[in-house]
């Protein structure tokens, strides 16, 4: 099999590992796909475990973020080390996010792609990620609405990528825009609640 196809398949499968679900089941015997927003992401992990296992909630949420970042980032690091092309790396990045958001282990349901998206985009766009993290932290600290902080951080990253890297090595911002579209699509219910003023805060 072509090495690029193997890389794509691994990126998708590893991206699809639902670490939030795994950690909640393993450490708290809680199925987060049945509670809260039913997402496998860290925000839902934190929200659900604060009610069911408050002492473990923050630790499991942080663990989920770390592993959701790493499952996108580590395959890219390895692929770069073995000499795969920049085009292949960008395709792997997109497939990692698709795997997380449409997991083969969850009947093609999944998370919202924020942590995994941050991991893969940060691999290519270091300064843009720092800008996005600053926006996420400030908005999250002031408004305490996770979805809004994530979406505005994503917008900041996309805009700054055009400013700081107008000419990427692959001569296209398409992978960034595809990842952004997927994340925004998965946040559609949150966006609706934000518009209606019904989105819950993370306290």
Question: Care to describe what's here?
Answer:
The chain crosses the membrane at residues 6-28, 60-82, 88-106, 118-139, 145-164. One of its GO terms (cellular component) is plasma membrane. This is Glycerol-3-phosphate acyltransferase. One of its GO terms (molecular function) is acyl-phosphate glycerol-3-phosphate acyltransferase activity. It is a multi-pass membrane protein. This protein is an all-alpha fold. The protein has one domain (3-196). Helices cover 71% and strands 0% of the residues. It has ten helices and no strands. It has helices at 3-15, 19-28, 42-52, 57-81, 86-101, 114-124, 126-143, 146-164, 174-186, 188-196. Helix 1 (3-15) runs parallel beside helix 5 (86-101), helix 2 packs parallel to helix 3 and helix 5 packs parallel to helix 9 (174-186). The mean pLDDT is 94.
Features:
203 residues; mainly alpha; phospholipid biosynthesis; 10 helices
Structural class: mainly alpha
Helical content class: over 70%
* Distance between the amino and carboxyl termini: 49 Å
The main β sheet shows up as:
none
**If you average the pLDDT, what whole number results?**
94
Morphology: globular
Subunit structure: Probably interacts with PlsX.
Pathway: Lipid metabolism; phospholipid metabolism
Family: Belongs to the PlsY family.
Transmembrane segments: 6-28, 60-82, 88-106, 118-139, 145-164
List the helices and strands and how they pair.
Elements: H1 3-15, H2 19-28, H3 42-52, H4 57-81, H5 86-101, H6 114-124, H7 126-143, H8 146-164, H9 174-186, H10 188-196
């Amino acid at each position: 099999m072509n090495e690029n196809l193997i890389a794509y398949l691994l990126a998708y499968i590893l991206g699809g590992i639902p670490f939030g679900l795994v950690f909640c089941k393993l450490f708290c015997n809680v199925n987060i796909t049945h509670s809260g927003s039913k997402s496998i992401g860290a925000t839902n992990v934190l929200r659900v475990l604060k009610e069911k296992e408050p002492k473990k909630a923050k630790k499991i949420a942080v663990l989920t973020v770390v592993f959701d970042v790493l499952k996108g980032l580590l395959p890219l690091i390895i692929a770069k080390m073995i000499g795969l092309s920049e085009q292949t790396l960008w395709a792997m990045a997109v497939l990692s996010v698709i795997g997380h958001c449409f997991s083969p282990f969850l009947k093609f349901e999944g998370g919202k792609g924020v942590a995994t998206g941050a991991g893969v985009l940060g691999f290519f766009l270091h300064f843009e990620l720092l800008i996005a993290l600053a926006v996420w932290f400030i908005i999250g600290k002031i408004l305490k609405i996770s979805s809004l902080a994530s979406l505005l951080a994503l917008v900041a990253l996309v805009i700054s990528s055009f400013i700081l890297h107008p000419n990427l090595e692959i001569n296209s911002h398409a992978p960034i825009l595809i990842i952004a579209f997927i994340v925004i699509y998965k946040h559609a219910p949150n966006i609706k609640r934000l518009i209606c003023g019904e989105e819950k805060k993370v306290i």
